[in-house]
Structure formats: structure tokens, C-alpha cells
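In the previous chapter we treated chains in isolation. Here, by contrast, the input contains two separate entities that must be folded as one system, with a combined length of 589 residues.
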Amino acid sequence: MIEFRGVSKRFPDGTIAVDDLDLVVDSGRITVFVGPSGCGKTTSLRMINRMIEPTGGTISVEGEDIMSRDAAELRRGIGYVIQQAGLFPHRTILDNVATVPLLLGWNKKQARERAAELMETVGLAPEMAKRYPAQLSGGQQQRVGVARALAADPPVLLMDEPFSAVDPIVRETLQDELLRLQSELGKTIVFVTHDIDEAIKLGDKVAVFRTGGHLAQYDEPGVLLSRPADDFVDSFVGRDRGYRGLGFLSSDGLPIGDLPVVAMGDRRPSDGWALVVDGERRPLGWAARGTGTVTEDSLVPGGSLYDAGAGSLRAALDAALSSPSGRGVAVDSDGRVLGSIGADDVLRGLADSRSADGAPEADATGRVG
Amino acid sequence: MNWVIQNLGFISSLLTDHIVFSLVPVVIGLVIAVPLGWLANRAGFGRAVVVNLAGLLYTVPSLALFVFLPVILGTGILDPVNVIVALSVYTVALLVRTVADALEAVPPLLVDAATAMGFKPFRRFVAAELPVSVPVILAGVRVAAVSSISLVTVGSVIGFGGLGQMFTDGFQRSITAEVVAGIVLVVALALIVDGILLLIGRALTPWDRAARAVAKGATA
């Protein structure tokens, strides 16, 4: 647990980067600090490992005031990942990853063994070990950065816009990898980004900062989307928040309807659409009404698939909206077709989950959430 | 050529002197210039003072230095230490700026990351800033070494000029072969030392060549 109590940072030139921040970061979860530039999110992060010293208030990590410890020792116990990784250009990948264990006084052999293990954990091929950072792509360097931060197995990981310098496709892979890693490691992660979509995807909890170092809202991402605290958060969370909020609502109990299926070579349906499946009941595409048999050429590509076991209302709605027939394809975890889902079913599911939550309450400002 | 063959013993003892007089100061000068350059780079305002003072030293004529050093150091006028100290001063003068510039060019992100991992300033300097500066510092050392090899010859006026003795002796006794042999040997020594330093630099910085190869590939 990381606790900010009345923390402020005023720089010598008088600018107030963080103003009286009270916030508790839960252990074993990902907490994202997000906000526009100049909102104090990075300053708040860097105060945790004393890269910036607070000018007021206290910060404690696992109950211990960070100012009570030697700064360098404190930092060795907190993993740190930054933009463009900040790797040592003159050291091999293996030695880069082994940096903190060596600082902690491990012998070289142990440190390198641990580093090799970590490289595997973050998905770096063993032959990368002897290369230098310049010989790796941006995405690979960022993985090295994560491996290096994890090498001494610190309970806390600070990540300062780690994925903002890589292209969107690599970024998405790295985000998925981080979530996978976190599900195995359960670190206390504080992640700074200016990208609200990244915040909502990664955060168990998201702290939205406002310019001037104020905390505007601190909530789970689903709450942020469905009940922004004020106009600032509302506009920062951005467009489509109603639709994106569906991603945080479980699709449990959503009725799955019938779906006519045919195999390749069968007669095409005389009315409406039929889903074409293979021998394992996995979807291949759609067959439209017509005469003759279903062939490769007449196959209409399908939309997104909805995994009925693990999906959200968003996945269900998207499956329905993207399907050429208007009926979304629901599959099980093995990708076998279970049935179909319609957009109206999803909307009814949404109405049900709202009434289960109770009527929306007006908060102190009279705003209806 | 006959003269050279007849005086091989004399020449080889001068060559040994020359190597010692020119290269020991480069080592001493580098050892002094690294902490000074570090200091210059850290002290924002002091930087200009240190770098310019060091630069100023280089403008003192070598002959004057050879003459004044015995007075300052209390050494005998014909003491080889004078030559070594004088050339060390020149090396410092050349390298302080190089070291300061090299350290200044270390990416702030790298220093920041090293600090955040828990390096204290001295260890961070040894583990990160200095090794990353090696390519630039080494370029400066190559200039200093070649310059030192040529400056030793001036020491012949006080009797410690290494191969420079062959110039003065050859002129005085009108032995052209001796003067030419002296010049050729000084130039050859400079080229060989420069080549060796280049190889040492390559051995120290395999990462630098790896990075260059990547950069070349990216622009090709």
C-alpha cells in the first residue's frame, strides 16, 4: 500500500505541481495516474521513489515513511520503468536486466541467472541476451526495461509513460503483456499515462488529475465512465464513454438465441441468414439467402465474436453490430458456436444491470450520475 | 642509412626515452582530467572557469614551461621530471574540456534511470556516465598522445627530448641522416601509438560499433 497524505510539491520557481494530495494506492493492483500535461501525475509518481522530494505532507510505502530511508536504498526496492526504457547502451541486455541485483550485492552468476529468467518472463528470446540495446526495436527495449525493473523482485513498480514512445500496435501488445504479467506477479503498480484509453484498459483504479495538481476523481474505470465526478472528468474521459463503459459490465445472464447453422456445401438458406461452420462448429462466415450451395466464394465474412463465458456487454453489442446478419455470434471459450445475440438483448441486459444497481443518486453537487 | 645502422643502440635508447616522456604524461594527465572534467560538468558556473583555465594552460609556451618548472617544483634544471610534469599539464589542458563535453553529452534519461534504480552518484559515474563517454574521451586522448609525442622533442633544449635529440645533434654536427631519421621515427611513433589507441578504444566499446552499425543500416 502506498499512501499520500496531504502531499504537495512546490518548485523553487513557485509553480505548484501537486497540491495537497490524499490518495491510497492498493497493494497488488494497477493504479493509473492520468491527466493532461502539467497536472502533476508524473511529479506524484516520482515522489514515491524520491526522484522528486515532496515539499509538504508524507508518503508511506507499506506503512513506512519514504523520508525515513536512504534515497538510493529506497529506490533499489522499487522498480522503475520509463519512456524509451533508459537502458545502459554500453551493457548487454542480460547485464542491463541484472543491474539492480548487482547493486544489491548479488554475485554476478546469480544476478545473470535471475536476469535470464526475467528475460523469459517478459518474452525476450535468449539470443537477445548478448546484444546491446541499440540492436533492439523500441518494443523489445521496453520489455527489457520491464524485466530490469522486476529483476530484484520489488513489491512496487513505478511506470512513467512506459509505452508512449512505441507505435500503437506494439503498445497494445505491451499493454496485454503487462496485464498478463500482473496476473502472475500481483505487484503494486503505479502507472502514469496521458492516454485515457490506456488508463481505462490497464487500471484497476484510475486517478484523474486536473491541471494544478488536483485529484479530480479516483475510481474504478467502469465508475469513471458511468459516473464522471464533474465536467472536467467527463470531457477528459472523452467521447463514446457510454459505449466504452459497457466494457465493464458483465454479460452474465444475457439470453443466447437460436442460430441457423449450415456446413460448407449445404444448400443456402431460403430466407434470412445462416452461419457457416466447420466440423468443429467453429464459425467460417455467413451464407446469405439464395439458391444453390454454400461455397467459399459466396461466404460473407463475419463480425467480431462474443465469448459468452468471459465477455462484457461491449463485446456482445459489438458482435451484434458488426455482424452482417444483425445477429452476433456467441462462442464458448474454445471458439465453438453457442448461438446468437441481438443488440436489443444487450440493451435489455444494460437496463437490468442498472435497475439492479438501484436508481441513480444525486451527489453533493446535485449532479445526477 | 649507414649512420642509422651504426647508431642503433643510441637510437633505441632515445626511442625508449621518447615513449616514456610522451606517454607517461598522457596517463597522468587523463587521471587528473577525469575528476576535473567531472567537477566542471557538475558545477554549472564553475564549468566555464575550470574549462577556460585548463585551456589557458595550453597557451603557455612549452619552452617557457620547461624553464620555469624547476623553479616552481624545486627540481634540478636537468631533471626529466620537468618534461613529464610539463607534458602532463598539456594533457590536462587538452582533456578537461573533452571530458566535460563528453559527460555533458550523456543522455539525461540514462542518468535519471540509473539514479532511479538506486545508484549513488559516484557509482553511477563509474558504471554509467564514464563508460558511455569513452568514445569521446578516447578521441581526445588520441589527440593528446600525438601532441605529446611531438612536444617531447622540444625537451631536447634541456637535454631530455627523446628522439628530438637527433634533431639538435644532427643539426649541430651536420648529419642529415640523423635529422631525417629522427623525423621519420617521431612520425612513425605517433602513427603507431594512435593506431594502438584506436584498437584499445574498439576493444573497450563494442556497443558503440553495434550502435553505429544499426544507425548505418537505418539510413541506408
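The domain at 2-213 of chain B is CATH 1.10.3720.10 (MetI-like fold). Residues 8-42 of chain B form the longest helix (35 residues). Compare these points with the single-chain example from earlier in the chapter.
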